[in-house]
């Protein structure tokens, strides 16, 4: 790497735009792009990973699979053998052919959920789905780990999730109306660092600060003090996790008792108020949902709950719910109830007020919506209909043919013989990983494309090494309204190929090469998608002009249309919501008609099922998003690793709970329940309320033996794998109870960042590992 040859090229990830310092082959640093005044440091850790020990540099096949063929050996407990691309491609193509011929295409699970990386063309989900569609189709997944419960319930009662997002109040409106923001689950500034598809420049948190300066007031109702930016000067109201619906009911009860509800709004724009009011006042179950009642459940005193209600009187109010509230047992209820509160106060659809759908939880939420839509790599048509709700993967794999309920209908799980993943990691995102490891043994074959020897690669049969976004040309253009060039900054090491090259080889082998590639190289496709984007939206610079401008430009403003909630308010007859009544459904005849005991016809307080084990496991575990990473991505990089304690993921624990367990700041602790156990590094303090611990997601799963203690601190060995309800079947990660104790004895090393081939040999002896303590 000589200084003279070194240059800087623009690049973009889900966490922002950067300049990559490169000699043309190797990237030495990512520095924030000058266009970004509030950049995320997450990207700075990426270069340290590209040539690290955990980088995959050639196709690998699990030893047992190579010897015994499909369906043999144990995933997660085997060594790996490097093979040529020719061998690897042959194995995968033959297996696709065998499985689809013998069992049909529904036996291939290609949901491949996950964030992958930014880039309109190389977007791994588009790549894999286009490929599998041409191969005859695959069993897909619906909804997301982020928002499944919200997506399904809002579709039933409020015209859909996109309508809620399009109707979100912006920080600017909140500033103009000096609104009161009641943020259930907070507005963690660390979460606005990222956005799917990229971020030109970070403006979300500065928007929040401007709203505060203009006179908006923020209340953060959350177990963690640091769930909002300090500059917001928010009132912190600690709450027992999983009890938000009770508190919202207590607020509603107080408002209606004071006769301050907006009867006119309820009458004109909602249905079912009468039914809900019966419940609110306990006429159906004998329990008035008073502030006192809510207090006994949530740990917030009744006076505070009443005060929150009183503060909404005569004040434009936002009832915001983070995504975390609905990634929990009965997760459908919190967003539905927040919407109901916003209907009670009549704020729904008013600028700067109403329902705040996950405000600030992603960079795009809270900033103005731009109707600009870039072109995408077409996935084609999926020729078969089989699907699962995304978080039901372990159920599907372990009980083929079993019936499941989802959104009013009953379906059967297909019998999966082959799993194919590119651009996501179920051993990061799924709950109850020990259960997943068991279910994961059932299919005959697991194929993955990965950058690194991470937990997914370690549980695969055929591992194909994929290029990172720094090793490809592309462009990013996301919901934040910027267009960013991604200029190839490094050569992929070793035998690494892009996802596109891999799928092109496979397509050729399977006889549909030309259909997949359309005879275009990757660079041809990038040029073509950029051309289509420009064709759709006048005012976008040419590629050369984009580069001359530094590689990042704002996209032209495209009118997104009137937000649906506002349009409804203006003229309900002309702009009904997409619900059976055309209005907000506080009581949904449709949902009531499904007769689900875990999701009744109106927002309802339902205690989390997890609470049945509270005696043995007294601490609530919240496993939110990591400050130093995007999920599990680049956990092997220096930025993420600088945040570890003794190499373990930090766990926040309250002073009182720590003292009761003789745990000191910096201790290695064992976190456990009936589902699993992991180590973590204690951070003792007052930022988390007593009775709750916080362990972020994303430490690479690192069991000392299959199913054993996770040495590194992945919370998903502890979280329950339960659908939110039969309505949405979403993930319920945030409803987990655990116990914590000081760890005694020799601390096992971190092996998560070791090369793939060595993963089993190292098991016995805990050798000293480079970079771990
Ligand atoms: N306990 C708990 N669990 C959770 C959550 C929680 O709050 N608590 N949150 C959930 C949520 S909201 C989400 S969105 C999920 C996120 O879950 P995922 O999206 O699955 O997590 P990532 O770590 O982003 O996984 C992306 C993977 O794709 C790989 N990758 C990146 N780019 C490319 C590429 O171009 N090609 C290929 N082939 N691979 C690539 C990365 O190396 C990485 O392994 O996690 C969920 N899991
Ligand atoms: N830095 C960074 N930012 C990210 C991501 C990332 O990986 N890294 N991932 C992005 C993605 S994919 C998504 S979907 C969003 C997720 O956005 P969210 O789901 O909103 O984020 P979380 O961090 O899971 O949770 C936010 C806070 O909710 C609180 N909380 C948990 N359970 C409860 C509860 O029952 N009641 C109340 N009142 N509070 C509770 C926790 O204290 C937690 O800090 O974040 C995005 N932002
Ligand atoms: Mo997410």
TrEMBL record:
CDD domains: MopB_CT_DMSOR-BSOR-TMAOR
All residue ranges annotated as the Molybdopterin dinucleotide-binding domain in the record: 619-736
Species for this entry: Rhodococcoides kyotonense
Gene Ontology CC: one annotated term: outer membrane-bounded periplasmic space
This protein's UniProt keywords: Metal-binding, Molybdenum, Oxidoreductase
Name of protein: Biotin/methionine sulfoxide reductase
Species classification: Bacteria, Bacillati, Actinomycetota, Actinomycetes, Mycobacteriales
Any GO BP annotation: anaerobic respiration
Disordered: annotated span: 33-54
């Amino acid at each position: 790497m000589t200084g003279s040859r070194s240059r800087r090229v623009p690049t973009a990830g889900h966490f922002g735009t950067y300049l990559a310092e490169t000699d043309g082959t190797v990237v030495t640093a990512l520095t924030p792009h000058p266009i970004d005044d509030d950049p995320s440091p997450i990207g700075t850790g990426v270069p340290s990973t590209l040539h690290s020990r955990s980088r995959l540099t050639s196709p690998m096949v699990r030893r047992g699979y190579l010897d015994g063929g499909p369906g043999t050996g144990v995933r997660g407990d085997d060594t790996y053998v490097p093979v040529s691309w020719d061998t690897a491609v042959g194995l995968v193509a033959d297996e696709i052919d065998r499985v689809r011929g013998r069992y049909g295409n529904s036996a291939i699970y290609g949901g491949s959920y996950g964030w992958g990386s930014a880039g309109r063309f190389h977007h791994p989900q588009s790549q894999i789905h286009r490929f599998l569609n041409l191969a005859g189709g695959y069993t897909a997944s619906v909804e997301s780990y982020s928002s499944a419960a919200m997506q399904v319930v809002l579709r039933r009662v409020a015209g859909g999730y996109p309508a809620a997002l399009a109707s979100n109040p912006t920080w600017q409106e909140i500033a103009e109306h000096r609104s009161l923001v009641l943020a259930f689950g907070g507005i963690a500034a660390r979460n606005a660092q990222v956005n799917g598809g990229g971020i030109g420049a970070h403006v979300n948190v500065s928007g929040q600060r401007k709203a505060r300066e203009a006179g908006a007031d923020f209340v953060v109702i959350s177990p963690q003090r640091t769930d909002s930016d300090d500059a917001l000067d928010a009132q912190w109201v600690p709450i027992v996790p999983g009890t938000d619906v009770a508190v919202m009911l207590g607020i509603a009860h107080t408002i209606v008792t004071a006769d301050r509800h907006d009867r006119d709004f309820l009458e004109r724009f909602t249905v079912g108020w009468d039914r809900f009011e019966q419940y609110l006042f306990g006429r159906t179950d004998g329990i008035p949902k008073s502030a006192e009642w809510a207090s006994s459940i949530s740990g917030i005193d009744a006076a505070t709950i009443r005060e929150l209600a009183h503060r909404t009187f005569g004040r434009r109010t936002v009832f915001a719910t983070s995504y975390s509230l609905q990634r929990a047992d009965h997760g459908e209820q919190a967003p539905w109830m927040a919407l109901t509160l916003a209907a009670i106060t009549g704020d729904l659809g008013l600028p700067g007020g109403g329902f705040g759908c996950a405000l600030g939880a992603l960079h795009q939420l809270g900033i103005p919506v731009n109707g600009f839509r870039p072109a995408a790599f077409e996935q084609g048509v999926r020729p078969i209909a089989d699907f699962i709700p995304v978080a039901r993967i372990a159920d599907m794999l372990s009980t083929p043919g079993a019936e499941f309920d989802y959104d009013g209908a009953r379906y059967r799980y297909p019998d999966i013989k082959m799993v194919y993943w590119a651009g996501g990691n179920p051993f990061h995102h799924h709950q109850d990983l020990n259960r997943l490891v068991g279910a994961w043994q059932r299919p005959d074959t697991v194929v993955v494309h990965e950058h690194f020897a991470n937990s997914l690669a370690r549980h695969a049969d055929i591992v194909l090494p994929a290029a990172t976004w720094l090793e490809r040309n592309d462009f990013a253009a996301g919901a934040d309204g910027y267009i960013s060039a991604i200029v190839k900054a490094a050569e992929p090491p070793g035998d690494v190929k892009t996802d596109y090259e891999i799928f092109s080889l496979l397509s050729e082998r399977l006889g549909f090469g030309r259909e997949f590639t359309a005879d275009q190289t990757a660079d041809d496709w990038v040029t073509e998608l950029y051309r289509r984007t420009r064709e759709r939206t006048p005012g976008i610079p040419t590629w050369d002009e984009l580069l001359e401008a530094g590689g990042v430009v704002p996209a032209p403003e495209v009118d997104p249309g009137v937000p649906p909630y506002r349009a409804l308010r203006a003229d309900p007859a002309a702009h009904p919501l997409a619900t059976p009544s055309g209005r907000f459904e506080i009581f949904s005849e449709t949902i009531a008609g499904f007769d689900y005991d875990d999701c009744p016809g109106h927002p309802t307080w339902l205690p989390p099922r997890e609470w049945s084990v509270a005696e043995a496991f007294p601490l609530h575990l919240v496993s939110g998003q990591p400050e130093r990473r995007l999920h599990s991505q680049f956990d092997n990089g220096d930025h993420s690793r600088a945040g570890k304690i003794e190499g373990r993921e930090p766990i926040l624990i309250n002073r009182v709970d720590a003292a009761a367990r003789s745990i000191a700041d910096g201790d290695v602790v064992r976190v456990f329940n009936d589902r699993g156990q992991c180590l973590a590094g204690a951070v003792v303090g007052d930022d988390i309320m007593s009775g709750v611990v916080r362990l972020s997601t994303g430490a690479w799963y690192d069991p000392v033996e299959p199913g054993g203690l996770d040495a590194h601190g992945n919370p998903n060995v502890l979280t329950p794998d339960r659908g939110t309800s039969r309505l949405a079947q979403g993930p319920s990660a945030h409803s987990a109870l655990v116990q914590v104790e000081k760890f005694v004895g020799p601390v096992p090393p971190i092996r998560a960042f070791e090369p793939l081939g060595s993963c089993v040999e190292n098991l016995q002896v805990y050798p000293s590992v480079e970079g771990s303590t």
